[in-house]
């Protein structure tokens, strides 16, 4: 059984149903999700447009992060049954889904822990950058070095 059931970067809208189906497992007693959406503000400023760019290695890096989360949780004796992660790239509108991660496990605590770790580690380690244009005319890159 492949523990990483779905991983990818997409220019098209993300499907929560696709992610749900990918982590379904009869042994799982809990499934946890995180759905990140584009909001209309950031740090007190109105967001007008937003886009995500990714390094060519981003999908491989996302898989590496997911493998580490699965390995770490299994070593800790809290097996995760399946994990999934999808991230949008390109131009997004306010309210669009930007990222979906999910984890299924025997119990809810393990599912929540793995899901939280997935999104935190993906945001910290995967080379995906957000560019925001604000309603005041300013703009910024987030996550770019």
From TrEMBL:
Record key words, sorted: Molybdenum cofactor biosynthesis, Transferase
Domain of life (superkingdom): Bacteria
GO molecular function: molybdopterin synthase activity
Enzyme class: transferase
Catalyzed reaction equations: 2 [molybdopterin-synthase sulfur-carrier protein]-C-terminal-Gly-aminoethanethioate + cyclic pyranopterin phosphate + H2O = molybdopterin + 2 [molybdopterin-synthase sulfur-carrier protein]-C-terminal Gly-Gly + 2 H(+)
InterPro entries assigned to the protein according to its UniProt record, in alphabetical order: MoaE_sf (IPR036563), Mopterin_biosynth_MoaE (IPR003448)
Keyword Nucleotide-binding: no
Involved pathway(s): Cofactor biosynthesis; molybdopterin biosynthesis
Pfam families: MoaE
SUPFAM superfamilies xrefs: Molybdopterin synthase subunit MoaE
EC number: 2.8.1.12
Single GO biological process annotation from the record: Mo-molybdopterin cofactor biosynthetic process
Subunit structure: Heterotetramer of 2 MoaD subunits and 2 MoaE subunits. Also stable as homodimer. The enzyme changes between these two forms during catalysis.
PANTHER family in UniProt: MOLYBDOPTERIN SYNTHASE RELATED
Job description of the protein: Converts molybdopterin precursor Z into molybdopterin. This requires the incorporation of two sulfur atoms into precursor Z to generate a dithiolene group. The sulfur is provided by MoaD.
Sequence similarity: Belongs to the MoaE family.
Protein name: Molybdopterin synthase catalytic subunit 1
Taxonomic source organism: Lipingzhangella halophila
């Amino acid at each position: 059984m492949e523990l990483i059931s779905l991983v990818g970067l997409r220019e098209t809208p993300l499907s929560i149903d696709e992610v749900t189906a990918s982590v379904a497992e009869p042994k799982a007693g809990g499934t946890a999700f995180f759905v990140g959406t584009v909001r209309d503000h950031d740090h007190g400023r109105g967001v007008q447009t937003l886009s995500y760019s990714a390094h060519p290695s981003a999908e491989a890096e996302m898989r590496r992060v997911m493998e580490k989360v699965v390995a770490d949780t299994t070593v800790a004796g809290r097996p995760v049954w399946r994990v999934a992660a999808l991230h949008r790239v390109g131009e997004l509108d306010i309210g669009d889904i930007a990222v979906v991660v999910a984890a299924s496990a025997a119990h809810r605590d393990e599912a929540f822990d793995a899901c939280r770790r997935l999104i935190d580690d993906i945001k910290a380690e995967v080379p995906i950058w957000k560019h925001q244009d604000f309603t005041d005319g300013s703009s910024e890159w987030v996550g770019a070095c």
